Amino acid sequence: MFSESTSPRFSICIPAYNRARHLPALLDSIYAQDYGDFEIVICEDFSPEREQISAIAREYAQNRLGTLHYFENEANFGYDGNLRRLVEKASGEFCFFMGNDDLMCPGALSTVAALLERHANVGLVLKSYAWFDEVPEKINQEIRYFAEEREFAAGSEAIRICFRRSGVLSGYIVHRQSALAVATNEFDGTLHYQMHLTAIVLATRGAVFTPSILVHCNNSSPEFGSSPSEKGTYTPGRYTPEARLSMISGALSIVRELKGSTGIDVVDDVTRDYANYFYPYIKDQLGLPFRQYLRLYRGYGRMGFDKYLMFHIYCCLAYALGERNFDALTRIVRLRLGRSPQFGIAG
């Protein structure tokens, strides 16, 4: 750690694994905020680019004394383990996670700070965000789940709304002490540690949604697959059918465990919610040969999705049309329904 820090409102938590070239732009986007009550916490996860990441972090820490804290993991903890370590190392009231190749939008921290002033007992802030390709000027999709700010009561209501929608890490904002209290390695290898936090934190604290775009997410290839908990399931650089099945199975295991530990039963609600917006979980698999795709389809079905009509519609129609044609059809349907031209993930 570079320096001591008092407890700030936000800990900007960055899990660092490779992608050193993107780190300066991310840090610049954070330091350009018009709200200054934050620290930055970086945990480097034993990646091949550790030396480059360390040099960048040290340079920024020297120029911004007391605001950036850099840690190096003694082994490759993997995605889930590194998120848990970030929560341990943070000191802010809320952890505001950022992917290591993404960008924080201007005014994001002041927007969230004002939101938290208007609402009490907040465990999680449900964000709006945008995707870009290659460079942030190429925004291809904005995700807003609702048109206006909304609050959700602690318990099943907040969990049903926020669970699936917590899948994208950047802009994930959670009450730190609540997250720290429920730390576990039970779900390591699912790539869904933040969704475990969503489920268990929202059992006792509420959630609030903001329609303001907080982060821009880089539509880049995944780096998962190097840690002991990920090897054999994930392949760095792409999502295989086995990886997709493992991720969805992991998500459902979290809500099943929630039922056992708290008595809150949202298993059917969450499964239905996934089924109604299933396209993101097959989109990158539409080029598979038919027999491989059929195995994927049946694998998902055995998880309980086969009882929902929308699951079958997404899987069959998307494969028949292909990604480009299905995306075009989705945009046309949404425009005719008077909704923004987003894919099914935005629901």
How would you describe this protein?
The protein has 347 residues and is α/β, with parallel strands linked by helices. The chain has two domains: 10-218, Spore Coat Polysaccharide Biosynthesis Protein SpsA, Chain A; 267-346, no CATH class. The chain is 40% helix and 17% strand. The chain is built from twelve helices and ten strands. The protein has helices spanning 23-31, 50-63, 78-89, 108-118, 156-162, 176-181, 193-201, 241-262, 267-276, 290-302, 309-321, 323-336; strands spanning 10-16, 38-44, 68-72, 94-97, 103-104, 122-132, 139-143, 150-152, 173-175, 206-218. Strands 1, 2, 3, 4, 5, 6, 7, 8, 9 and 10 form a ten-stranded mixed β-sheet that branches. Strand 6 and strand 7 (139-143) form a beta hairpin. The longest helix has 22 residues, at 241-262. The radius of gyration is 20 Å and the shape is globular.
